[in-house]
Amino acid sequence: MQRIARLLAVIAGLCALVLATEALAQKYPSRPVKVMVGFSAGGPVDVVARIVGDRLGNKLGQPFVVENRAGANGMIAAEGVARADADGYTMLACNSSTITLNKTLFKEIRYDPQVDFAPLTTVVSAPLVLVVNPENPRTANIKSVADLVAAAKAAPGALAYGSGGNGNLAHLAMELLSQKAGIKLIHVPYRGGSAAEVGILAQEVLAVFDPLSAVPLVKAGKLRALAVSSAGRLPALPDVPTVAEAGYPGFDISFWVGFFMPKAVPAPILETLHREIVAAAKDPAVEEKLGSQGVVSVLSQTDYAAKIAKETKELAEVVTAANIKAE
Fold it and tell me: Partner of 243 for a Cys bridge, out of 104, 251, 285, 321, CB 3.0 to 4.6 A?
């Protein structure tokens, strides 16, 4: 009888916990939710956070307030969220580098991306575009990835490419291509992707993995697109192959923006936020706004976690092989 009584008490406790958790989810949120962004206002992460935050606020009845804590490649905001109360009222909006690269590049990092956060979903994904300048005599005849690789093999260590800085995703994309193709190039780090784009237009470097700002320049004939870095083709440049299609299977590097909560936030709250963010991204009016920042891309929480683990491992291998040091 005592065993039965104890068993019934345990069952009653579990039922009470389930009911309390369900009640928590039903009344969530009951006050404003803070959305931490580790980059300046007006940048891609900030824009996505505000678009999604506005939709969540309208849908869930409480404001989702963006707070910008820029610095250290998003690490200041990420650490703040990792240390926040797990009550569902502090959210992180960040880019892929904050999650998949910082732990490899920086010794002084006070959060563990795969331990301290509960992934919600990605929202947009922006592939990089491998471009050359058709007006540069040295690249006028380079019209494919194979042409670029052939030119590099003909002049080992003599051809220069640009990126937005050491450890920048564009830097890693070119290093990964170099490793897969067995070529050696000279890296010229600029202060940001825009500066690297200016560099290739000025014929200072021969190639760049450019962000989506390259698309208008490609369409205007100012730059020539050789390939895109994602697993699938870019809708804005449907005739441009992927690097994988160009002969390097498995090549897939993109800049993405996604959302996270502290790890211990109750599952019902995580499920609510995941469901509403996905619904927001699929709403035609919201999707149109998000489209200015990349291709709308949402994942299940499980697939998001798997994506993070895969990219973290792959990028760490690239960093180690190329001996890349953060600036």
Answer: 251
